[in-house]
């Protein structure tokens, strides 16, 4: 991925920085088109994964819709050229102002996560003289087999309405005169590599849909959320997730009614592999058990290892020496500021460049200025080779 000429150009840039391979992003989107969109599925990009304008424009041009979780994400999506009727607005804690933003633009759907939210939205919509399109986010209680911090569809999670509350919902909805029920929404978690949780989800959706039917509610759409994972261990062997297998689960297991639309909200699987965090080795320090390679990037640029014990592959760009074992750490005053422990890498020296891979999703956008550090720049492949 990092050819010599590119690495030579990296050497003149201030580190750390994010590098985005737009060619890979486009190839990934083509796969989503071939296996999903061209079959009639509606795919919203979860903008939370990466809100860079350049990335958003490419995703819009590829024909995807958008999934937002804040008023500012709605504004960013519109700025990037998405249409209001492409915007799904999720979130367990929408403020009145954010709901108002959605109402003002007449967005595609408010994915409501509690009965109280529905009542507040109804009130705001009534005052504004509008009707809000609502999709009900239900918590299906499905084990997603992922890190517990990014599991969202279990009873213990704060997200969605428990299906046991459906009788209350069916009683409430007819009284909500400024709300139009258009669909149901689910999102069971993130970095889901195994397809079984999606099969379980389809079966759960089928039975929940029957309950809506029985109560006389017709659903224009079903939104199955996102969460499809990427290969962090071997990003070059699996640069593009297997979207064929993903969409086939829904072809085979979801009962879709005539004219009903099926929506998805994918984030990581679209942008994860196209981004890398490029960093310089500041010091190599001998330790008691392993040596430490101290980088100029840390948890302020990429918090995933510190927050979710995530393991991102580290590629050494400027050394071909025999391997030694390192703990690859950042400069921040926190022990959790560690990218990898005990990893064999070509021998490193001060000034070597490394790429921390698969950092396109939840990388740059989760960065902070803790320790008053500067925010890292972003560079895109078309600035280097025209692609
Ligand atoms: N839809 C909803 C309602 C969501 O909450 C999320 C992600 C997505 C879609 C997109 O999920 P994806 O396809 O990207 O998995 N910061 C964590 C991930 C948090 C995901 C939050 N919700 C990480 O770095 O692993």
Structure description:
The mean pLDDT is about 95. The longest helix is centred in the middle third of the chain and has 19 residues, at about 195-215. The protein folds into two domains: about 5-15 and about 275-385, Lyase, Ornithine Decarboxylase, Chain A, domain 1 (Beta Barrel); about 20-270, Alanine racemase (TIM Barrel, Alpha-Beta Barrel). The chain is built from twelve helices and 16 strands. Helix 8 runs parallel beside helix 9 (about 245-255). With about 375 residues, the chain is of the alpha/beta class. The structure holds ligand LLP. Ligand LLP binds near residues 67, 191, 226 and 227.
- Give me the secondary-structure category: alpha/beta
Radius of gyration: 22 Å
Quote the average pLDDT.
96
| Contiguous runs where pLDDT drops below 50 for at least 5 residues | none
Number of helices: 12
Which ligands occur here? ligand LLP
CATH architecture of the largest domain: Alpha-Beta Barrel
* Strand content bin: 15-25%
The CATH class label of the largest domain is Alpha Beta
CATH homologous superfamily name of the largest domain? Alanine racemase
What shape does the CA trace take?
elongated
CATH fold-level topology of the largest domain: TIM Barrel
Please provide the ordered H/E string of secondary-structure elements: HEHEHEHEHEHEHEHEHEHEEHEEEEEH
Secondary structure: number of strands: 16
Number of domains: 2
Helix coverage percent: 25-40%
Distance between the termini: 13 Å
Largest sheet: 8 strands, mixed
């Amino acid at each position: 991925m990092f050819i010599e000429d590119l690495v030579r150009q990296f050497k003149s840039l201030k580190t750390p920085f994010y590098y985005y391979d737009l060619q890979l992003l486009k190839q990934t989107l083509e796969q989503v088109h071939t296996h999903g969109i061209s079959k009639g599925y509606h795919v919203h990009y979860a903008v939370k994964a990466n809100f860079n304008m350049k990335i958003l424009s490419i995703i819009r041009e590829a024909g995807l819709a958008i999934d937002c979780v804040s008023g500012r994400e709605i504004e960013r999506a519109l700025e990037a050229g998405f249409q209001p009727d492409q915007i799904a607005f999720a979130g367990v804690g929408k403020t009145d102002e954010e709901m108002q933003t959605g109402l003002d633009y007449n967005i595609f759907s408010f994915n409501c996560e509690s009965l109280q939210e529905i009542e507040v939205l109804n009130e705001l919509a009534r005052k504004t003289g509008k009707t809000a399109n609502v999709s009900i986010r239900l918590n299906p209680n499905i084990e997603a087999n992922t890190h517990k911090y990014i599991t969202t569809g279990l009873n213990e999670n704060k997200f969605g309405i428990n299906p046991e509350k459906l009788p209350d919902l069916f009683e409430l909805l007819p009284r909500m005169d400024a709300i139009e029920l258009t669909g149901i929404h689910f999102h069971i978690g993130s970095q889901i590599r195994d397809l079984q949780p999606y099969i379980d989800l389809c079966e759960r959706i089928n039975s929940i849909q029957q309950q809506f039917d029985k109560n006389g509610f017709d659903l224009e759409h079903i939104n199955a959320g996102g969460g499809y994972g990427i290969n962090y261990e071997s990003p070059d062997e699996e640069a593009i997730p297997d979207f064929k297998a993903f969409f086939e689960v829904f072809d085979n297991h979801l009962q879709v009614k005539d004219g009903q639309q099926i929506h998805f909200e994918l984030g990581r699987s679209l942008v994860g592999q196209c981004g890398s965090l490029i960093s310089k080795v500041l010091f190599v320090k001998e330790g008691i058990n392993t040596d430490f390679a101290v980088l100029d990037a840390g948890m302020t640029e990429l918090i995933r290892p510190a927050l979710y014990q995530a393991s991102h592959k580290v590629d050494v760009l400027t050394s071909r020496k025999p391997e030694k074992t390192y703990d690859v750490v950042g400069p921040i005053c926190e022990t959790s500021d560690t990218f990898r422990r005990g990893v064999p890498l070509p021998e490193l020296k001060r000034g070597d460049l490394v790429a921390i891979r698969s950092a396109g999703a939840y990388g740059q956008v989760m960065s902070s200025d803790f320790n008053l550090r500067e925010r890292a720049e972003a560079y895109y492949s078309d600035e280097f080779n025209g692609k």
